Amino acid sequence: MTASSLQGESGPGELGIDALCRLADVSRAGYYRHWRASAPRREETALRDALQRLSLAHRRPGYRPLTAHLRRAGWFVNHKRVLRLMHEDNLLCQRERPFVPVTTDSKHGWQVVPNLARGMALTGLDQLWVADITYLHLAEEFAYLAIILDAFSRKVVGWALATHLRASLAIEALDMAIAARRPVPGSLVHHSDRGVQYACGEYTARLGAHDIQPSMSRVGNPYDNAKAESFMRTLKRDEVNGSQYRDAADARVRIGDFIEEVYNRQRLHSALDYLTPEEYEQTLPRSRAAISPPAISITETCP
Length: 303
What we know:
The protein folds into two domains: about 5-90, no CATH class; about 130-280, Nucleotidyltransferase, domain 5 (2-Layer Sandwich). Helix content is about 40%, strand content about 10%. It is built from eleven helices and five strands.
């Protein structure tokens, strides 16, 4: 009997290491030398297996969220080791595609409002929503995704996908957010870029009907809308890049699943102390009563 065969011999209510070593004519020191040499290899193999499973389950997340997932599962591991293993096993995320079509047309005659979001100290949900639009490359055309994000919890509260850039795309996402959250009138700032979809009369009328204060970024300053931009980068990295969508309907189903099930309910955020947006919102007090949406009267038409 060898030292390696001893490792599977001892269990609850069975012979101890000393007795097994005597039966096998193996020294106790020799057994532990073999154990120290082989146990780390088995531990790393198990860790690599767990890392592979998490990478498949969470759609190419970064190494820091994967480290948090591993710790939740009981592994004692730091982010540097996870990054090394991901590099060795080719699990790192794909690079973003360089081509970016224009989604913002700020040369229009509609009113541009000041940036009210800059410097806001958020203390709860539905105080600041941030909005943005990005493109999606389908098999034979482009589609466009409009989103609205709660800046406090990072949760996507409204979204819409279409093959056009008309204002109705952004309005559909806004209507979803209002129906889902029913913000208290006068308590919410809506921040976006200066694009015509957000500046036009129909969109601003929708905001005014719910007493939501509009806010817009400064010219050429993407940092003013950094949280929305960050979500778009996550979407492209974790879902869009490497995926092929047949058409807008296929993209709507798959990206909707990513937003609702993966991003809002599974993806861990370092800014939220490695909670998901849904988990983070559940830790917050719920004291607001639901507010019925007011009636809307639109007199101006957007492009």
